[in-house]
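Subject: design request, 369 residues
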């Protein structure tokens, strides 16, 4: 079939050993296996009558089993499993049923396969094409990588935010959320859009160059360590955004209080402390937006640097979502009071976001934090 040799080569680069098991003559089997890239120099061709006497250490050198009987297939599967290999077995006939049942993944042919083979197998290939197996492995690895990245993203953010929110519950004189609507904004918008970018992101191009996983945990010890370190560093940046603003180190300026920018509205009777707290919340939200947007770019390809990942696996969808995320937040903090007024007058809600417009210097500080 067209593309089989390429799929075999891809499987080998992914650490998957492809073995031919057939009832044909050894010479015929060897020729076909060579054309498909399965048989290489120094590989062994073993007949079914020799399998029982074949030592375990030589199994790794065999790429073709010829003149095989149904019971021989069982022996082959069990021997690979004794070496702690995860075995996938393909077959279409009644005599393949036992091996399909014993294998870690039994794969039956959908077109030529018998009913018994299909019922015994764990999955069925609808087109009877080996390339479908390679594509299935590629998709499976990509999904695992994406699930791992999304779980890493949310656990890291939740640990960081839980520590900050819990800590400020005992901090007198300041509430991170002035209203429930700000709470909804951070969890409904700030978290949703960056995580959506990870969902629609493409799979890594080199996913089939990685070695197989053997019952690997979604997050191993090294990833947990990196997760905690990143959560700590991001948390430090967010706390600094709040405290530096509240303590006047990042002072109020004319852009914040509408001396130069009149699109947003702040009541004239607002005290200096209320203005500082309002700016602190806005700096916190803005820094969090930037942190999450940058975070998705750093963890989408954990085995590559940010620059290399951006150059080699550029994703226009990821860029669009990142730009939309930041643009939406800019519009919200520019028109927060007009947004409050419009929604309250139209829907009769007590809608309160109450963010403050930030100057270019404020934005630069948020980016640096």
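Subject: RE: design request

Done. Sequence follows.
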């Amino acid at each position: 079939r067209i593309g089989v040799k390429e799929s075999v080569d891809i499987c080998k680069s992914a650490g998957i050993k492809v073995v031919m098991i057939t009832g044909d003559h050894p010479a015929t089997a060897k020729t076909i296996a060579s054309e498909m890239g399965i048989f290489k120099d120094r590989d062994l061709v073993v007949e079914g009558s020799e399998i029982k006497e074949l030592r375990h250490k030589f199994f790794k050198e065999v790429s073709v089993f010829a003149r095989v009987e149904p019971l021989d297939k069982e022996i082959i599967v069990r021997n690979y499993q004794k070496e702690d290999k995860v075995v996938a077995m393909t077959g279409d006939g009644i005599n393949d049923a036992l091996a399909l049942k014993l294998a870690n993944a039994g794969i039956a042919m959908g077109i030529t396969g018998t009913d018994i083979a299909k019922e015994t197998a764990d999955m069925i290939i609808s087109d009877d094409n080996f390339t479908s197996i390679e594509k299935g492995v590629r998709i499976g690895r990509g999904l695992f990588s994406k699930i791992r990245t999304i779980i890493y993203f949310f656990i890291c953010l939740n640990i960081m935010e839980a520590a900050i929110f819990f800590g400020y519950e005992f901090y007198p004189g300041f509430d991170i959320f002035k209203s429930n609507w700000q709470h909804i904004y951070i969890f409904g918008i700030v978290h949703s859009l960056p995580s959506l970018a990870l969902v629609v992101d493409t799979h890594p191009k080199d996913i089939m160059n990685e070695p197989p996983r053997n019952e690997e945990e979604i997050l191993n010890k090294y990833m947990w360590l990196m997760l905690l370190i990143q959560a700590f560093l991001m948390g430090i940046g967010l706390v600094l955004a709040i405290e530096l603003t509240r303590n006047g180190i990042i002072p109020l300026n004319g852009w914040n209080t509408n001396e130069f920018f009149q699109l947003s509205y702040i009541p004239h009777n607002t005290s200096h402390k209320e203005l500082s707290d309002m700016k602190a919340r806005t700096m916190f939200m803005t820094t969090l937006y930037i942190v999450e947007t940058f975070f998705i770019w750093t963890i989408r390809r954990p085995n590559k640097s940010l620059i290399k990942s951006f150059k080699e696996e550029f994703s226009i969808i990821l860029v669009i979502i990142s730009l939309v995320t930041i643009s939406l937040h800019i519009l919200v903090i520019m028109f927060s009071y007009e947004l409050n007024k419009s929604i309250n007058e139209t829907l009769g809600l007590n809608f309160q976001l109450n963010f403050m417009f930030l100057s270019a210097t404020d934005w630069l500080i948020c980016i640096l934090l």
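The chain is about 55% helix and 5% strand.
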